[in-house]
Amino acid sequence: MIIAKDKVVTIDYTLTDEEGELIDSSEGEEPLIYLHGHHGIIPGLENALAGHRAGDKVQVSIPPEEGYGDWEEDLVEVVGVEDFDDPEELEVGMQFETMTEEGSKMATVIDIEGDDVTVDLNHPLAGMTLNFDVTVLGVRDATTEELAHGHVHGADEEEH
């Protein structure tokens, strides 16, 4: 069975940046299971996996526009320390979820100066070329319920 829209796909992956530094990996963890064609993974990786089947190994380099987008200066904001519930716990590098006009976004504290806290609402991988080394472990038809909900249900349903 080949990877196509409405298929449940199970992959092992390693993600590195342009310098070859490890960003993320499923090695030693549970594999990633997603519903193909339903925006469960970044577009560039989904496109690269289409047409492959269980057992295939895929290496692909994804530019920012097919990954998490370009890094945008206007998504960096300075807010007051009084906007935080626990300002004494703030530290550079910490991440938190916040509501924006576009919905919920992850923010990263990038600077604290006095009562001013600079936060970056860009995705942490925005602006980066992402290198994936993927092994396709399984491909199956999605259930009616999974299609209705637009995501995979329980890994125990997975067939390899």
Proportion in helices: under 10%
Average pLDDT, rounded to a whole number, is 93
Low-confidence stretches: 156-160
Strand content: 35-45%
The first-to-last residue Cα distance is 11 Å
What does this 3D model show about the protein?
- The protein is mostly beta strands and 160 residues long.
- The chain is 8% helix and 39% strand.
- It is built from two helices and nine strands, in the order E-E-E-H-E-E-E-E-E-E-H.
- The protein has helices spanning 43-49, 144-149, and strands spanning 7-16, 22-25, 32-35, 57-62, 76-80, 95-100, 103-113, 116-120, 130-141.
- Strands 1, 2, 3, 4 and 9 form a five-stranded antiparallel beta sheet that branches. A four-stranded antiparallel beta sheet has the order 5-8-7-6, with no helix packed on it.
- Strand 6 and strand 7 (103-113) form a beta hairpin.
- The protein is elongated, with a radius of gyration of 19 Å.
- The N and C termini lie close together (11 Å).
